[in-house]
Design brief:
The protein is mainly beta. The protein has one domain. Helix content is 0%, strand content 22%. The strands form two sheets. Strands 3-2-4 form a three-stranded antiparallel β-sheet, with no helix packed on it. The chain is globular. The two termini are 22 Å apart.
Amino acid sequence: MCTYRGIGTQLVQPGQEDAPAQLSTGAAMIMHRARWGKVSLLHRAPPIMGTAEVRSLLAIDPANDHQGD
């Protein structure tokens, strides 16, 4: 995941949504999905509603094989 234009993606720990960390524009982030139901880090778009801010984000999700792995 990488924000190429605009404000970088925010990272928060569950339960601490009021204290996000913010990635710099152009910083790449690799996240691994939770397999055991425990989420330790969430990502979100920074609030830009009502501003002139524009963001361009690239996110690549893993491809699953035909066996559902």
